[in-house]
Write a structure and sequence with these properties.
The protein is an alpha/beta fold. It has helices at residues 15-29, 50-61, 76-83, and strands at residues 4-7, 32-37, 40-44, 68-71.
């Protein structure tokens, strides 16, 4: 899909909750959802793993790049199926 939705988190939202909600919204809308979280741009797509997004957020937050962008990954079983040509898309 070629759509992207930008959202904002309420103050006090944890990265754990934010990651879950961002991916849930991506799943519900069927498109990419992006948000800024403490200076890190988060990107989630339908089927992505919220825990992966949370872990990558911590990695980017502690990194030295001036622009910080991270995207979740799909669960490994789905990624493997897509790589082998058995998944959707």
């Amino acid at each position: 899909m070629s759509l992207k939705v930008n959202v904002e988190f309420f103050l006090g939202t944890s990265i754990s909750t934010g990651s879950k909600e961002l991916i849930a919204l991506a799943n519900k809308l069927g498109c990419t959802v992006m948000a800024d979280f403490n200076g890190v741009a988060l990107m989630g797509c339908p089927g992505d793993d919220p825990l992966s997004l949370e872990n990558k957020y911590h990695f980017e937050l502690n990194g030295e790049k001036s622009y910080k962008l991270t995207r979740a990954e799909r669960p490994e079983s789905e990624t493997t199926q897509r790589f082998m040509g058995r998944g959707r898309d």
